[in-house]
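Tokens as discussed.
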């Protein structure tokens, strides 16, 4: 853990609840979490799995920078982030974000901002494998 941001290295080794247990909460009165999971369907198609590829040398630094920016912007206490790489089946966790803050509003705002920015900035690419084939999704995250 570097200061107040904890980033779990890819692939996500810890389950989201285990990552949450490692989040410091001293001085905080709220913890807000977001856990993204693989959907079982996309439209009418069954999703067999998602495959995530990442520029691994840059993933952790980007997540750390986003965590530090959230702390500075929203006045929160601590952040824990993780994003899986490789194959992720239906109903398995993809991404986990936990925010500890003195107050709930800032925690909710920071958590929402973090997932939006992670999807924009993290060097992660997603391929969706369905019953009818595979498709690379546009953009990062």
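Sequence:
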């Amino acid at each position: 853990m570097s200061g107040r941001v904890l980033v779990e290295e890819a692939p996500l080794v810890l389950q989201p609840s285990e990552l949450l247990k490692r989040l410091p909460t001293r001085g905080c009165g709220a913890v807000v979490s977001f856990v993204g999971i693989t959907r079982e369907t996309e439209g009418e198609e069954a999703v067999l799995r998602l495959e995530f590829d990442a520029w691994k040398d840059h993933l952790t630094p980007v997540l750390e920078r986003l965590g530090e920016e959230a702390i500075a912007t929203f006045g929160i206490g601590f952040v824990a982030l993780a994003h899986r790489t490789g194959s992720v089946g239906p109903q398995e966790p993809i991404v986990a974000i936990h925010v500890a803050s003195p107050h709930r509003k800032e925690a909710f705002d920071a958590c929402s901002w973090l997932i939006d920015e992670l999807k924009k900035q993290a060097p992660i690419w997603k391929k969706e494998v369905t019953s009818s084939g595979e498709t690379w999704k546009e953009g990062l995250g």
